[in-house]
Amino acid sequence: xxxxxxxxxxxxxxxxxxxxxxxxxxxxxxxxxxxxxxxxxxxxxxxxxxxxxxxxxxxxxxxxxxxxxxxxxxxxxxxxxxxxxxxxxxxxxxxxxx
Length: 98
Prior knowledge:
Layout: H1 3-9, H2 21-30, H3 34-41, H4 47-60, H5 63-73, H6 82-96
Helix pairs in contact: 2-3, 2-4, 2-6, 3-4, 4-5, 4-6
């Protein structure tokens, strides 16, 4: 799935069935459903899951918790607009699924 298709899918009621749990967490987070996104990603392992988890906490405003998850992801702390970081995560996660 391309980032453009991913963004278009945000208008649907449900995420595409082809998305992984981590990608679905990003999908729900992009739609503003923080709780559902967090439920999906908190039990996942791996650097990408930790990055999405960090981004979610950053969106929430819980920067201390976000800092912890950025460390687990091996990523620098996000500092620009969260929407820009969403785009970065989206590109990387969708590239991993090709």
